[in-house]
Amino acid sequence: MISTNPSRSAPSVAALDLTVRRVRHPLEMRRVRVVRTAEVTPGVANGSRCVTFAGERLHHFVSASFDDHVKLVLPAVPGTELVLPVLGPNGPTRPEGAPPVVLRDYTPRRFDVHTGELDIELDLHGDGPAATWARHAVAGQEAGIGGPRGSFLVPTAFPWHLLIGDESALPAICRRLEELPAGVRAFVVASTATPASRRQLTSRATLDVTWCNSDDELLAKVHAFPLPAKPGYTWAAGESQVMRTLRGILRDEHQLEGEHTRVTAYWKRGVADHHEAVV
Ligand SMILES: Cc1cc2nc3c(=O)[nH]c(=O)nc-3n(C[C@H](O)[C@H](O)[C@H](O)COP(=O)(O)OP(=O)(O)OC[C@H]3O[C@@H](n4cnc5c(N)ncnc54)[C@H](O)[C@@H]3O)c2cc1C
Question: Are residues 32 and 144 in contact, defined by beta-carbon separation less than 8 angstroms?
Answer without folding.
Answer: yes
